[in-house]
Amino acid sequence: MKIAILGGTGDIGQGLALRLAADTPHQVTIGSRDAERAATKAEEYTTELDSRGLDAAVTGAENEAAAAAATVVVLAIPPYHVGDTVESIADALDEGDVLVSPATGMKRDDEGFHYHRPGAGSVTRIAADAAPDGVDVVGAFHNLAADRLANLDADLGIDTLVIGDDGDAKRTVVDLAEGIEGLRALDAGGVANAPEIEALTPLLINVAQHNDGLHDLGIEFK
Ligand SMILES: NC(=O)c1ccc[n+]([C@@H]2O[C@H](COP(=O)([O-])OP(=O)(O)OC[C@H]3O[C@@H](n4cnc5c(N)ncnc54)[C@H](OP(=O)(O)O)[C@@H]3O)[C@@H](O)[C@H]2O)c1
């Protein structure tokens, strides 16, 4: 399967690109608003994989071209730009493609990070509202620490919660996530349940910041 990671030049995009390329047979393309930046980052990730003896080339392209070539498109971009970005790539998507949203709206003050719920209800909902007909949106990867993913020496042993209104699209993303070694994907229902998952991200960051040794913590449900 071809996976595009829009904003794959950033933190969570890097982690997902490296893990997916290292652990799964899928072809990963980094998307960016700037084709040259995408190509540079893709080369960097490929070099990292190669240094570990992994024969898994990551490619780079401008966001729309990356989305056009992919079946699964991950929106690894700041939450406030998710709606616009989905609209900007809508023509490049085919019926049956799946969009994946890991984004969470957050505000920061002196006390820490706080969930900033968008008016639409969740960022996943914003993506779903902006998606063209026939393209389903699935929420996943919200509660993963980018640095832990990007460090291929780090064992994961954590869960990701997956939400979506279409069973087939959700299964596609569950299978994709579980291809990453040490990551378990749990079905958390439909898009209406996205706020509860998105709200966990600031909680995790606050716990990470206040407790030594938990910098890149994740959740494991038992
Ligand atoms: N960091 C984490 O640990 C983590 C964990 C779970 C979920 N998330 C979620 O994942 C998303 C990305 O987080 P991140 O930390 O990776 O963010 P980031 O590094 O700040 O940004 C990711 C990429 O977004 C693109 N971008 C920036 N401004 C944009 C705009 N106006 N329109 C379209 N694209 C834009 C940039 O790529 P180009 O400049 O190359 O286009 C950038 O490299 C966020 O929504 C966040 O809530 C993050």
UniProtKB/TrEMBL annotation:
Molecular function GO labels: coenzyme F420 binding; cupric reductase (NADH) activity; ferric-chelate reductase (NADPH) activity; NADP binding; oxidoreductase activity, acting on NAD(P)H
GO CC, any one term: plasma membrane
The keyword Oxidoreductase appears for this protein: yes
GO-annotated biological processes: copper ion import; NADPH regeneration
Domain of life: Archaea
Record-linked Pfam families: F420_oxidored
Record NCBIfam families: npdG
The name this protein goes by in its record: NADPH-dependent F420 reductase
Organism (species): Halorubrum saccharovorum DSM 1137
Organism taxonomic ancestry: Archaea, Methanobacteriati, Methanobacteriota, Stenosarchaea group, Halobacteria
